[in-house]
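Reviewers of the previous submission asked for a worked example of the structure-prediction workflow described in the proposal, so we include one complete record here. The input consisted solely of the amino acid sequence. No template or homolog information was supplied to the procedure at any stage.
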Amino acid sequence: MHLATPKPRSAEHHFAAIDLGASSGRVMVGKAGPDTLTLHQTHRFPNRPVRVAGTLHWDILSLYAGILDGLRAAGATAPLTSVGIDGWAVDYGLLDADGALLGNPVHYRDTRTEGVAAAAWTKVPPTELYATTGIQYAPFNTLYQLIAARRTAQLSAARHLLLVPDLLTYWLTGERGTELTNASTTQLMDPATGTWSQETATRLGIDLGLFPPLRRPGEPAGHLLPHVLDATGLTSPLPVTTVASHDTASAVAAVPATSDDFAYICTGTWSLAGLELTAPVRTEESREANFTNELGIDGTIRYLRNIMGLWLLQECLRTWETGTGSGQGPGSPGGAATLEGLLREASRVPALRSLVDAADPAFLPPGDMPRRIARACASTGQPAPRTPAETTRCILDSLALAHRRAIEDARRLADRAVEVVHIVGGGARNALLCQLTADACGLPVVAGPAEAAALGNVLVQARAHGLLRDRHEMRALLARTQHLTRYEPTTDPTQRAAWDAAARRVSAA
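From that input alone, the workflow returned the following structure tokens.
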């Protein structure tokens, strides 16, 4: 790994973390030193997908403009040592021979990959694909997106493929690379070696030559180009550092664990629940349990299961706010005008009354989520939620049970002890979800930091520039400096029995 010249360990430096989420992007400035780690937001901008001619796209130029505005604001707060970008996985942009973008990246929630996996499995059976790549089945994996794009004019004209954070890094620096943690989500890599699986790609007709050389977190990614400096008012030379560009990898790097016996849940639009391992688990039982082996920093494995997460509640809120869909809404009996009020009312709804499988792909597309949840409950003979508060309680109870099942399965399949669950990301602010997860799992939950992805981004930059030694020192700094809340599980035997019975109910459904 090629790191920058170490700085004096007593020094404090400012790092710009560009953190892209499914609904918005932010530019944060982190101040880091041996006993300092602070973070503040300098700019937030919307991330609004656009449907054109039936295809759902990311508005990548709008995101880039937001990044430039954010860097300008960041530079006005303090002299910057470095810049890093993290974002979501699997999606990509295609460039022509001149390096020009051939079209807006397609959104992973687009339907173009429907039925693609079944066709791919005729060439590489799913058991063999998992034994090689260790990646769980998801219809939107890059592998299936590329097969769906076969014979399109864009892919035929493409000479380079850049995953979304790498594309934005290229526009900032003029240098192309493929960051390792994000590359591991494509279902085209061997997680044990951290290299491409050429045989898999060849059998499926995928040209790995489209991907630029791999980069590891901490390696240089170039310097801001002159026109970027002009647009942002920043001064040269300002390096861009490769961070764990998959936001989940950055978030796991920011888990404030004080021992190795922990599970994590990275919460936001998705819940990513699992363990940090030193080697992948690629057994057939693991494949059937739909666990994935993605790469983290320092050669670690993020052994986790994707759960639909707070997307369920986000889509309900969107439906209620717009007044479309099922008719439930803030004005409905039991409704609430704010999320805080909604969670307060949900806490008074009887527990475990109605449950859904929070990992069910039926909840993946956007649309009338309250109606879909009500139908799912009714189809299994449960009371259908009638109000926003009842729907919200159904979602949170169901997520807590999905967290429990993922953690129980992960520790069994990996043969690992778990003493504590760390919840990081936006869900760490949801006290009801954190307490329900502790009760469901029967384990203490430590919630925070909420801005884990941005903090992980900053910490990898800080380590690359000589301020920290290793990920254990990074986590110790987090534990000393960040606000964390501990939730103890219920000790009431009646409540424990209720959670056990609910878990059996969901499994049997």
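DSSP finds 19 helices and 21 strands in the chain. We consider this example representative of the routine output the project will generate in years two and three.
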